[in-house]
What we know:
single chain; alpha+beta; five-stranded antiparallel beta sheet; 11 helices; globular
Amino acid sequence: xxxxxxxxxxxxxxxxxxxxxxxxxxxxxxxxxxxxxxxxxxxxxxxxxxxxxxxxxxxxxxxxxxxxxxxxxxxxxxxxxxxxxxxxxxxxxxxxxxxxxxxxxxxxxxxxxxxxxxxxxxxxxxxxxxxxxxxxxxxxxxxxxxxxxxxxxxxxxxxxxxxxxxxxxxxxxxxxxxxxxxxxxxxxxxxxxxxxxxxxxxxxxxxxxxxxxxxxxxxxxxxxxxxxxxxxxxxxxxxxxxxxxxxxxxxxxxxxxxxxxxxxxxxxxxxxxxxxxxxxxxx
Length: 283
């Protein structure tokens, strides 16, 4: 598995900060330096540090947390400024956790909108509530998700390998474009919770969101494992699609254990292919 390295980060970004006291004033205010609009609150991540930010992971995903700690991780906040064709500044800011050759991107919420702070007032609460509580708290209470990027920059419309950024939970047709739409829609509709709050458009299959796409960033085929939840369903079931087979959707038997083992495997380097099928059965 390919990761972003410390060298990659230093080469791509103009400014890399590892200490909260060294952050630029606009980051401490969570404001864009050019547009004067709100930005994701990366300053709070850095101020909290690895132990505070990942305390929910330590509480609910001990194997994964141990694998992260084994890296001797640091948190970084990184900025890059370029100019477009009409000489207007283009500013980018990302946060990472890791060490050496193995860093992953960390998603931040807007200030005051994390699940830990806002609870049910958060705009993402309906997604958070669709997951089993230990998974939701471990990966989405203080952070907005994680991502492995094999090269920079990242794709803001994609979140791969680790528990997906909560604002980039894609629909099945967005991650399974190589699958016949009829097969995909029928498969998801067949496992849907009949008591889930219906979507305004009545499209049951669109109520499913991909919460983990194990394929690396550039992979476009069907080979790989996808995990889905049904938003606004109280069942909090996690479904597994192996190698694009939406005709044979599987049910994850112990999602909390699967996440713990899989995320630990990724943090440890992700050699070979993780066996999701060992953790699921036909739905």
